[in-house]
Each structure stands twice: as structure tokens, then as C-alpha cells.
Amino acid sequence: MAYRYNRLDKDNAVVLLVDHQAGLLSLVRDFTPDEFKNNVLALADIAKFFNLPTILTTSFENGPNGPIVPELKALFPDAPYIPRPGQINAWDNADFVDAVKATGRKQLIIAGVVTDVCVAFPTLSALEEGFDVFVVTDASGTFNPVVRDAALDRMSQAGAQLMNWFSVGCELHRDWRNDIEGFGGILGGHLPAYANLIQSYSQKS
Amino acid sequence: MAYRYNRLDKDNAVVLLVDHQAGLLSLVRDFTPDEFKNNVLALADIAKFFNLPTILTTSFENGPNGPIVPELKALFPDAPYIPRPGQINAWDNADFVDAVKATGRKQLIIAGVVTDVCVAFPTLSALEEGFDVFVVTDASGTFNPVVRDAALDRMSQAGAQLMNWFSVGCELHRDWRNDIEGFGGILGGHLPAYANLIQSYSQKS
Amino acid sequence: MAYRYNRLDKDNAVVLLVDHQAGLLSLVRDFTPDEFKNNVLALADIAKFFNLPTILTTSFENGPNGPIVPELKALFPDAPYIPRPGQINAWDNADFVDAVKATGRKQLIIAGVVTDVCVAFPTLSALEEGFDVFVVTDASGTFNPVVRDAALDRMSQAGAQLMNWFSVGCELHRDWRNDIEGFGGILGGHLPAYANLIQSYSQKS
Amino acid sequence: MAYRYNRLDKDNAVVLLVDHQAGLLSLVRDFTPDEFKNNVLALADIAKFFNLPTILTTSFENGPNGPIVPELKALFPDAPYIPRPGQINAWDNADFVDAVKATGRKQLIIAGVVTDVCVAFPTLSALEEGFDVFVVTDASGTFNPVVRDAALDRMSQAGAQLMNWFSVGCELHRDWRNDIEGFGGILGGHLPAYANLIQSYSQKS
Amino acid sequence: MAYRYNRLDKDNAVVLLVDHQAGLLSLVRDFTPDEFKNNVLALADIAKFFNLPTILTTSFENGPNGPIVPELKALFPDAPYIPRPGQINAWDNADFVDAVKATGRKQLIIAGVVTDVCVAFPTLSALEEGFDVFVVTDASGTFNPVVRDAALDRMSQAGAQLMNWFSVGCELHRDWRNDIEGFGGILGGHLPAYANLIQSYSQKS
Amino acid sequence: MAYRYNRLDKDNAVVLLVDHQAGLLSLVRDFTPDEFKNNVLALADIAKFFNLPTILTTSFENGPNGPIVPELKALFPDAPYIPRPGQINAWDNADFVDAVKATGRKQLIIAGVVTDVCVAFPTLSALEEGFDVFVVTDASGTFNPVVRDAALDRMSQAGAQLMNWFSVGCELHRDWRNDIEGFGGILGGHLPAYANLIQSYSQKS
Amino acid sequence: MAYRYNRLDKDNAVVLLVDHQAGLLSLVRDFTPDEFKNNVLALADIAKFFNLPTILTTSFENGPNGPIVPELKALFPDAPYIPRPGQINAWDNADFVDAVKATGRKQLIIAGVVTDVCVAFPTLSALEEGFDVFVVTDASGTFNPVVRDAALDRMSQAGAQLMNWFSVGCELHRDWRNDIEGFGGILGGHLPAYANLIQSYSQKS
Amino acid sequence: MAYRYNRLDKDNAVVLLVDHQAGLLSLVRDFTPDEFKNNVLALADIAKFFNLPTILTTSFENGPNGPIVPELKALFPDAPYIPRPGQINAWDNADFVDAVKATGRKQLIIAGVVTDVCVAFPTLSALEEGFDVFVVTDASGTFNPVVRDAALDRMSQAGAQLMNWFSVGCELHRDWRNDIEGFGGILGGHLPAYANLIQSYSQKS
């Protein structure tokens, strides 16, 4: 059976940011806090840059899980924002699913905290409904690498594609000429090593 | 072929705890003792919380393998308890298989020591008989990560789903509103970082 | 110049627990949460077992740093408890120093969060005043191993002795015959591998 | 399509030890020398214990690759021994394939140095010819974990089962009662932690 | 369905070296610089040794990404060299695809920087067009192991074979007797441990 | 001989930032780029917050070493800025030493790239001249941990104190009441885990 | 003050093996079981080879700590063997100290389980009495590297020299010509990589 | 007591390369083979560049230890070359010590295999005789990091300075203007990341 490259398309993709909340973030131990913060905001900037519809959801944000990280709320002031009253799997929340379906898009780019629950559960549910799911592994965090690896295996075996924020951005952008300055700015802002290259280059120009 | 999300269901799941014995635990080196003890007891508390039928089995517990850890025996005083006279694969023991089948349930949540034998063998046997198997990777331990990874790959390729105690609990619970206090108590008891969130939150309330 | 073994003496030692607060604990990344919680409570149990005077102190516990972990408060209900109004170095707080000096003891066993500040600063201050300081490295946590190693080097070079909760307990106990059951109970309660040895041994007795 | 548990059977398995040569062993860096030596000899002892037909082969043993490790030669003095004149893939050597086929067995238990070549190539060739292949990952070594992981993925995707010497022994043995002393002796000889359990147990008996 | 061993064939393979540029190399953090440089040049030497058609391509080499590493340019002075004007996925560049197809070969050996983009994207595109793709994991680099693992999983699930430069060389060479000196020279030049074996051996001859 | 706690004093300290240049930063491999950038900027913010005299110096910034990172230049527009014409050890440059001495301060807080050269050499020179040197280990980077550890040992044995940006800030601040908002802002800006605590706390207030 | 090289002398050294007991060994997690067993037996073989007086001691060997490992007992059938009735620090046991002093030797080579207690305590006591102490770090084990590093720092700061079994053997042997075969045999028996060198060499001779 | 910066001086330094032999190199496991080869040759190139007197010595090079690595022999054809007939500590060989003393230099830059023996023993002997010793930690290799750390601590406590090849080169060079091209060439040849900087820079010039 021939393989088909299911490739991210900026006209068919939606970004789902699940439970990046101040309290829950203290559970994330498979990335350092600096790295993880950077990865999540990089993904958010990519969503913004490509004008992808973006959906935010949280779990019990008035309790110990804490509020959504303020940078995300600020970046997407008009995005659908679904504070779930109790459902652990965001896909069990009708408002969330409706918001996804209202976009008319089939490619779901998902990240969240924790990987094995808040990312894995809606991923598996969406796959069952025929969506294409792209898991942003480095913008999703959990307790430790053993837990992460099990969760990623579960999603991969179910048909999800494992990616990272950088490859998501590149697969959406396709060609630097679409906007060199804009895309370079995102890389420079979230990849210090790339910012150094740009700076050294600029110095000589 | 469409993917079907085979989701844990508290009315269809049974927990199998295989060979968590005092002697065998000294072989476990892919987790620290503190972590592993916590993970096993967390899984046990989840089984208890959801009233899942639970089956305990041991191998040669009067020999060097040693007795089952007392906390497990104490938590499940009335559970089927099958000390196997010699079978390495618990599924080769008719009493064990009968106990599983007597529950009438099709979803097996399994953990044990060591992962590559006491978990892998009955997992593969049960898959062959058509059961759905969910391996709790962080409540199963073995000699080192190389051995663990090989064993998990073998089981995953055969169709088992790889999970961890936290995601098992969340997939069973489905909605916090089913019992906020109870479920939060389990998390607080086994996730020190979550206990800290609860404590900080309570202080302010 | 001859070396003198400055050995912990249960009649001359006092335990200082500095800033083990629910919020600050989320900063600790050089131990897993399970390990660290266990290490701190093990040290606390040792302080209790040997009836060592114990002093608790916190920093801004009504703010984001959060309250002291409840187990510590519960274990030492009558201990001096100094919530510092602002001093970062506990030794800059006169009440804290007075509490230490009131014990009349010269050997300070110290642990806290974070190692490089809440442990290092009072350690250096106390060394300057001629106290003997024993740093419990595994009951003290901080951001990452690079930070920890720098902090431990700073304290060691200043004359502090680096220890861990287990060696603190053993150096205080000196002889198992002083209380076999009691001391074994602490080890069994905080070292799962030792608990397994006890259980296997008991089975055969 | 139903899963079938392809289980090792001591009447249908043959062991292939490929290129465990003194020179080539210096290339192995994904295990420490102590661990790797122990793992290889443990697998050899298992082959002996179950009287499995065992085939040895080497590559250029008069050159820099060096002679086969003497313990293996001594353990299997009458085993087919095929020094290959040049073929890198042992399955390209007719004598080797003939030796395998002469056993009439279908389950190949394979280990060698290096994993990505001396193990992977004959594994893939044998799978193509319809054999069942069980790769002993911890008795196979190579340059580093990145290389190992790629090689194991390649073999697993082709249908090989990834195992380790301990699980191979247990899957062949099936039931301790078949020979408690003999099998325990192998474990005690190659698992120091298990030897300790036996010794502690014996002391009390 | 029977497995077919899709084996590298020096008459059917082409090597694609994608974006090994001086600037981009500073992004590679999943290998040390010494290791990575050695791995890339080893793969290049293998391409040369077997006279495999080799295609070089770069992205924006006049900008911060920097020029292709000079050793590669020097080794393949007459190879097709496609500086892409903007396409991120080399397969989106018609010249590149034409160069590949002009070789008439079906087995693509690919390596590049970064793994998750410059290797993964053309790999998936080529698989879709029916090419066989062999990814050289240790001559491809990226930001960190989490990103690498996700990218390798994506490619493996799509049907690519994961290899390393050493196994590529060995699978192409098939038999040492085809050229002992030549092939040994490549190994000695890129595997210091093998060079040591050769030297020790030569001393004694 | 009594130990004296040589404690950072905001009226006696000067900050030396040595060779944080765009090119040289690509050599730093003992921290991830995200972490290292954050650590350097945190130290810079601390220098600013306490109005510490700060001296910048670079080595060959018009060559491959590249320009100073722009954030540092922007933060300290009026600081002494000494581009060294060739001296590797900044202390061999009279302008640099003069700038240090002109501050009249005796406590040098130093960080730079690479640790073993740009930090170690001026540290040892300054110690010889009787200055007190505080090395900010996590704002200094180099090739790998083996190199770092050797360099830190050399400096520590010579009498330098090993610290990190957080402990430098806390030792200078002494008491939260000196400026709660200001100091909390620095922590929130550079410690994502602390920012989360603040956010969760604020939500409840 | 001039440095004096305090060098191991086979006529002035005694070996102390402290608490290498079957139960306690299950606590050792800073080495793999294979490595640790090999290291301890290598040290024992060195003691034997140089006819060094050797003293064995155990703690509560009839309890959970378990019996001394049988290989040590067998190697030194006539050595002083002091089962301590309760003293944790072997130096608190008069029989042990008497046995040490009876040798008339001043250089103590010590190893044991666990490093932070059974090695550190008698090391510090012996240093106080003017003995020279050489700690065999790789034949001493404990809970984890954090604990080990603290214990080694404590002993090093007190004046002990940190060594490993290989350097102990070499410092005692001084010159290969004293017994090439004998010393080579020990290395070959405990260093698989060295055994391979010998084998490759012998093949060519 | 004032600290004196004992700084490498190209007119007072001599380089000692001890036992970098083809066989012994297979024992080195605390560096990858690629890294270690590069480090040793970088140090050799530095010795050459500064025309430092260099002394080579080997142990039993006609036996399993193997011949000196050919690159070193080729780089220093006229250097004193002392094949020791049996002495393990090179300082026990009169020819070696005479060669050192004949240089009239007091600063010894030493590297070798293995760190804990071939480097540590002559280092301690030379320190006792009043030489200044600079240990090149990354051009010295041994069995594992635990052994290395113990050996480095032993030497550091005795007064040796721990360095690495890069800092040795920089401390000798003092000022880039002494020879920009020459020194840059060494860095470019042994630091791939620095070579990339040079190449990117040159492109723009």
C-alpha cells in the first residue's frame, strides 16, 4: 500500500493548546523550565505567524492547576477559550470539539501538559474521528522521559505524527521566500544559536 | 483501516499485579527505589479507588524471590491471590487465567517485575487470546533501560498500549466531577509536586 | 597539622530546616519529587528519633513561596518556628540565631531549599561564628546539578562537612544496640530496598 | 488480523553467535566491558543449558578483528564454527546458512558485534526467508546508543522480536520446576543481585 | 505478507547530502562537534569509495546559514550542486528532484542538517513517490535527542529504514574481498578504535 | 585559622562580562542555548538592578568570534567597553584592569565564554592581585562538562568562590524588603517556575 | 610547605573490606551490579597477589544485612574476620582496631558498603589517629552519585587519597618486571578489554 | 598567604605524553574515541606550535599495550622517546626523569593513558620534586568518570593544576597578535565549531 505524505498545510491546520497552566507546569520534568517555556511560546508564535486558528482550553483553572500562562492568553485574545468544567479529555467537552470542527480544518497540531493525558487523550479521540494529528513533542511536557516515551509510542502507533515546533514551522512555511524577515524573526527569537548566526552575518553585511 | 480508540473503561478493566516481591525488587534498576515504590502503590490505589477487580500473583515466594510487598497484600485482602508453583508466565497458570476470565472483563491493566518477563509474557499470551492489554510502564521494573526498551517494543508491536499510572487513572476517571476529592487525594498522595499545588492553593482559599 | 574527626554527637547537634515550602519546592530540579520528599522526611524522622533540637524557618510563606510542607510542621509542633519577614539569609534574622544559640549546641545539621542560597548563606555565616556545620546534601535541593555543585564546593571550601541523611543518622546512632528496632524502622520507612531486606528476612525467621 | 504469540520453544530454537571477536569487542561502547562480557556469556550458558544447537561464526579472525573470545570457543567445542572468508553478512555465507538449515529449526536467537551490521544483516536476510528472529539486544553491542537504536528499529520494523538474555532464558524454561537448581545456577552466576538473594535465603534455611 | 529485505545495492543507490552548512551546523546539539564532523565525512568517503552518484544541496548559503562545509565541496567537485533559492524541503526544488531522477536509481541514502526538517521532509516526499529511503541517523543532526527521536519515528513509520554510516558502508560493500585495503582504509580513517586494531595487528605481522 | 565569610556587598562589587560574543557562543556546549542565554541575561539584569558598575570586554569582535550579544550592549550603554586588540587574558589589557580599579571595588563578579580561558585567566590574575573573585558558573560556558569541572577546580583551589546568578542576586539583595517588587520581577523574568508561582498566587489574591 | 608523595608500599599496606554483605549490596545503586562485583573481587585479588594483610568485618550478618559475599570469605580463609555486634563505625570496635594495629602497617586501603558510612566513618577515625588512608572508590558503593560525591569530598578534605582498584594495584606493583604473568593475569581477569588485548596479542605471537 | 598565579610560560614548559598506545587506548571509556583522538592530537599540535620540548614514553610497547599512536611518533621524530622496560610510573625511569631535567624547565604539561596511573603517578612524583604540574584532563583517558574524578581529585589536592588542551594553548599564546594565522589554524583544525565560524566569516570578507 503506497505511502501518502500527509503534510502540514497552513490552510488546513488548527492549533490546540491544552492545559498549559501555571500549576500544572510545575509537574513538567522532562524539559528544563527555560527550554519548555521557550518551546511553548515558539509554537504559539508560529500559530500566530501563519494565522492558524488556535484553540485554548484549560482544566479547573480556579483550583490548584492554576491559570493559563499569561503569554498564551495575551497572544490569542480572540481565540476560542474553553475552560473545561471537569472533563479530563478535552475531546469529551462538546464546546472544544465544536470549536475544532467549526474551523473546518482536518489537521490538528496539538501540544499540552501533561503529554500522557492532556495531549494523548484528545489525540486518540481525534484520530478515531478521522482527523490528522501532529503532536508537538517539545511543546508538550510530563513527569519524566519514561512516561513521555510511552505516551508518544501510544500516539504514534495510533497514527499520529510526532513533530517539534521547528519542523511544524518549516513544514507550514514551505519556502523562505514567502516571508524571509518574518520567519527569520521567529527563529531568531526562539533559537539563540540562530540569533547568533543572524547577528554575526549582519555585522559583516 | 480506521483507527479505533480502545479506551480504558472502569467497568471493563481488571488490574494484574505480577511478582512485586521483596526479593525480585532488588533486581529493578531502571527506576530508583523511591520512585518505583511510589509508582506501584499509586497504581494500587487507583485500582482500589475505581473498585477494579485486581489479581495478585507471585513466583516462588518462599524462596529467594521473597514475599509479596506487604502494602499490596494489605490493600487487596480479598483479591484473588495466586502463588504460582513454577510457571514463569503467569498466563501458563490455569488459576490465574481463570481468575482473569472470571471477571468477565476484556481490558487488562498489567504491571510487574521484571518487565521483560513477568509483564511481557502474560501480555503476549493475553493479546493472543484477544484481550486488550494496557502496560503500566512506570509500575513495571527491570534490569536497565536497554532491557526495558526492548521489552516495551516487543509488547507495543504485538498490540499492547503503553501507559503509566497517572494516565491510567485519568483515563478511568474521565471527569473530575465524578469525585474531585477522591481523585485529588490520590494525586496528592503520590505526586509530591501536585500535593504542593494543593497546599499552596488551600492556603489562599 | 593533625586532623581531628569532628563527629556528629547527638548531645551537641541541632537540626536546621530552612525554607522547605510548597512553592519553593517546585524550583527543585536536581532530585525527582519522590526522592526529595523522601529525603527531607527521612532527615526529619532522624531529628525526631534522636530528640535533636530542631528549628524551622520560612521565607515569606504568605506569598508565592507558599507554606511550609505540612509534614514538617506536624512533626515538630513545639519547635521554634521563625517565619522571616524578609531576610534571605536566615542567619541575618536575630530570632533564628537566638534560637540556635539557645540550644547551646555547636554542631549544626542543615538542609533547605534552595541549596545555593537558603543553605549556603546561613552555613557560611555560622562557620564564621565558629559553629561546625554539616550540610545534608540530599535533603537540600536547587535548580540543577551545576548550581548544586558550585554551592557545595563553596561550603566545603569554607569548612562545612558534606553529608546525607543516611550518614547523619548512622553517625548519630553509633551503635545499633542503642535501639535496633527504632533505627531499623527509620531505615525501613525511607529506604524501600532496606524494607525489602527486612521483609525477606522476617519471612524466614 | 489476530496476533499470534510467537514464543521461543527449546525444541525449535537455534542460537547464532556472530563475530564476538577480541578485536571487534573494542568497538563496543553502548555497554561497559564488564556488563557486555557478562551478557554474552549468560546467553552462551543459556544455549548450553537448553542444549540448543549453536552456531559460531567470525569475520577475518586472523586480521585485526582478532580471534573469537576463548570462553565461547571453549563452551561449544563441537558446534559448527564458520570463519567467513569475507562475507560481511553471515547469511551470504552458504556454510553458515546450511548450518542453520541443517538444524531444522525455525526460531533464530541471534547476538553479535556490531549490532547494526553483524546482527542486523543476517536478521533481515533470515526474516526474508521466513525464519522467526529473536534479537538478544544486550548480548549485541555497537558504537553508541544512537546507532543501536536505529539498528533495533530497523530489525523490529522488519518483524524481529527484541529480547534480552534473561527473557530468552525464561521464555525457553517456561516452568521453574523443569530444573530449579540448574536454572537458578545460571541466574546466580550472571546476576549478582540474584546471587545475593540466593545467598541471603540460604543463610536462613 | 512476506517481508522483503530491501538491501542497499551500490548500483542502485544515490547519496543526498542536505544542508551541511557552516552556520546550520552550530544548531546541531545531539552529537558533539567532533563526532558529527567525523560521521559526515565518513559517509562522504563511503559515497566516494563506491562511486555512488552524490547530490549536494544547500539552503540560502549566502545568508546566516553559511556555506557548505568545504570538505564536502572538495570531495565532490563534479557532483550536482543545488543551492535552493528558498524551498525548505529539497524535494520541492525541481532541480534537486531532477538530479535524483537523472541517476535512475531508486535507493536514496540521505543525511542532513537538521534531521527533523532537511532530512525528514525530502524523505517523506521521496517515499510518497516510491523511492526507498535509507536515513543515515548519525550523519544527520538536530537540536536535541527529543527532536531527533520524534523525527526518526516519523520517518520510520512512513517506511524509511534507519541506518548509520558504518552499516551503510558494510551493506554496500558486502564482501571484504571486494577491496580489503580500500574499505579498511575508510574504517581506519574514521574509527579510531579500528585504527588502533590495525596498528597493533601490523606491528606483529 | 578562623574562616571569614567574604560576602557579596552591593557597594563593593563590580561585574565583569567577558567575551559573550555571537560567534564564541556557538562553542558553548555545557548548557543548552536557551538556558545559557537566560542565565547570562539574568546576571545582567541583576547587575543593572543593583546598579553595580559593569565592565564589558570582547576579543576580536570583528573576526569570527563575532560581535557582543546585542542585549548586553543595550543594557549597559554607558559601561566601560573594552574591545581587546589581542590579549586573551583580559587582565593583560591595561584598559580593562584600569576600568576595574577605577571602580575602587574589591569584589569581582565574573562570567564569560569560555570558562576555562576567558573566565579562568582573569580570575587567577585578579586573585593574585588580592581581589575577591566570585565566579558565576551558570553564566559561563565552555566545550563540555569535563573542561568546565577542571576550570572550576583550578579557580576554586586558587581561592575564587563558585556561585550562580541566583545566589549572586540573593547575596546582594540580603532582604526582600529592600525592594520586593523589583527583585521579584527579576526572578519572575528569568525563572519560569517562579513566574508560575507568582501567577498562581496572584490569581488567588 | 613541600608536598610529599605518600605512595602505596606493599610492605606497609593493609586492606580493609567493610560490610560487603549480600543484603547491603542491594542498596548499592551508583554502580551496576556487574561492575561492582568485578571491582570488589579485583581489589580482593590484588590484596591476595601482594600478600597484603587483609581484614574483613561485617555488621549484623545474621540479620537483614545478610552474610558476607562468599567469594571474599573464600579468598581470605585465615584473615581476621570481625563480625561487629553493633558498632556502625568499624573503628569503634576494639577487635577491628587491634587487628589493624597488629599488622604494624600505616597505609590503610579501604573499601566497603555503603561509602558514606561504612567507608567514611573508619576512614575519618583512622586519619585522626595518624594512619594514611587510601579509599578505593570503585570498590565502594552507595545509594546514588550525590551521596557518593558528598562522602568522597568529606574524606578527601580530611586527607584521604581517592583511588580505584586499578591504580592501587599499579602503585603497589611499581614495575611489571616484578611479575609480568601474575599481574597481567589479574588485569586480564578483571578488565575484559585488557583480556582482549592479551588474546589478540597472543594469537599473533 | 597570598596566592600566586603559576601561569604557563612557553619558555619554561615541557610536554610529557605518557603511554598513548594503540592497545591501551581501547581501555579509555570516559571519552568517545573521536573526541579523545582529537584532544590528544590538539595537544600535540600545540606542543609543536610553541616549540615546546616534548617527551614521549611508552610501557611495554611490544606487548599487548601496543605501539605508540603513529601520529604522535610522526609529529615528534626527534623528541626523546623512552620505551620503559617495566616501570609503571614513568618517573621511576631514570632516562625519563633525566630527559625532563635536561630541558631545564619547571612547568610540566602532562597527559596520558590511563589518567589514574600513567598520569597520576608521575604527576605526584614530580610535584614532590618541586615541579609545577599542569594536567591536561581532556587528553588523558581512563576507564570511567568515577575513576577519572578520583584521580583528578588526588592530583589537585597534591597541588597540580587541572586544565584542558584549549586553555593550555591559550595560556601559552597570551596574545593573538603573536601569530593570528598560526594559532587560528590550530583551533580551526581541532574545533569543528570554530572552523565553521572561520568559514562563515571568510565567506563574507
From TrEMBL, chains A, B, C, D, E, F, G, H:
Is the keyword Nucleotide-binding in the record? no
Q: Where is the signal peptide?
A: none
Q: Where is the Isochorismatase-like domain?
A: 14-164
Keywords tagged on the record: Hydrolase
Is Cell inner membrane a UniProt keyword of this protein?
no
In Pfam terms, one family for this protein is Isochorismatase
Task: Give the protein name, as stated in the record.
Answer: Hydrolase
User: What organism does this protein naturally occur in?
Assistant: Pseudomonas solani
